[in-house]
Amino acid sequence: MREDTAQEQGLDLEPPVPMEEEKEVMEEMEVEIEDPLPCLSETDTQGIIKGRDLFGYVGIEAVLDQMRRKTMKAGFEFNIMVVGQSGLGKSTLVNTLFKSKVSRKSCTPNYEEKISKTVHLQSVSHIIEEKGVKMKLTVIDTPGFGDQINNENCWEPIVKYVNEQYEKYLKEELNVNRKRRIPDSRVHCCVYFLPATGHWLRPIDVEFMRRLGKIVSIVPVIAKADTLTLEERLEFKQRIRQDLQANGIRVYPQKEYDEDAEDRILNDKIRENIPFAVVGTDKEHQVNGNKVLGRKTKWGIIEVENVAHCEFAHLRDLLIRSHLQDLKDVTHNIHYETYRVKRLNESNANGLALSPLTLENGTLEKSEAESHL
Ligand SMILES: Nc1nc2c(ncn2[C@@H]2O[C@H](COP(=O)(O)OP(=O)(O)O)[C@@H](O)[C@H]2O)c(=O)[nH]1
Ligand SMILES: [Mg+2]
């Protein structure tokens, strides 16, 4: 059967081997067959033929170049959300991360911004190009979060925004004539800024992260960590980790999504170190003849990228250098997938095409024009 189909397809298979010979070949082959790739199912495995067993160079590795070229041409999108009270250094940190002015600093807020009574989301996009690789970076700021006397439900507009982006993507996917590349406005990462109080998580932190941790990847950071001594920083970090665990808050990278042992070792190190105590700046200073990003104080210069001074470099490595693609994958494969399944089940139950989006708390979605965007 297999050969017939193969011949029909014009594949060049070896003629069948007589029974005795076949046994010998099988025995030989058994030595050659190695552990199947973890990603292949049992029915897929045919044994692995490695480079040394090939008759000559095939050129499979060139697929990496092809992928690279395609990605470079098309570019990619990365959407990062920053949440925390005003003045915690959110805009400064995003600018430090991407070494450019991608987020407006709020040191001179205008009157309207000062009296804003609601959390109101602003998204700004920039194309960043480095060594021929283009990235469309969207920074979603959440001014007004945690700034009121009564901060009850201030996470709602944020939950709504995150879900709206999933909904947009889902609608595009369900379109009969869907685009080849669906524009991706989903939040790939939410950096949550904790004030460097040196105490514990506040109720607003717990409430926010507990809710949002279920729908988006959260990376908590200790803002303006230059205000803590080394001992205070260590203790505060420990206490936050305990609080996160005690409250069942899920932050990125989550254990259950580690793909293999190598991933686990790398991510365990990150988990042991979370939340990163960071310092941001938009100024460069001369230190030993080198230009470094830093904050100049009366008693010296805090070098932002120096791991002996603060943990900014760990955060940058996580968000950009080691886990950017994983953040996008987790968003697509876990958070968006959960949303998609829930929405499709809802509409199947209702017998509708796609029922109107409802928020977690059951309030009906308002029209786009009415939203805070
Ligand atoms: N000490 C200290 N000040 C900072 C840090 N990051 C930003 N700032 C300052 O805090 C103020 C508010 O920063 P901004 O980025 O506008 O905060 P946002 O309102 O959270 O976006 C500015 O004067 C910044 O220069 C930091 O890491 N340490
Ligand atoms: Mg700001």
Overall description:
It comes from Danio rerio. InterPro entries: G_SEPTIN_dom, P-loop_NTPase, Septin. It is found in: Cytoplasm, Cytoskeleton. The protein is an alpha/beta fold and 373 residues long. The chain has two domains: 17-58, no CATH class; 75-350, Rossmann fold (3-Layer(aba) Sandwich), CATH 3.40.50. Helix content is 38%, strand content 15%. The chain has eleven helices and nine strands. It has helices at residues 2-8, 19-32, 62-74, 90-97, 111-114, 156-174, 203-212, 230-246, 261-273, 312-322, 324-350, and strands at residues 76-83, 122-130, 133-141, 189-194, 218-222, 276-277, 284-287, 290-297, 300-303. Strands 2-3-1-4-5-6 form a six-stranded mixed sheet, sandwiched between helices. A three-stranded antiparallel sheet has the order 7-8-9, with no helix packed on it. A hairpin with a 2-residue loop joins strand 8 and strand 9 (300-303). The radius of gyration is 26 Å and the shape is globular. Residues 90-91, 106, 141 line the site of magnesium ion.
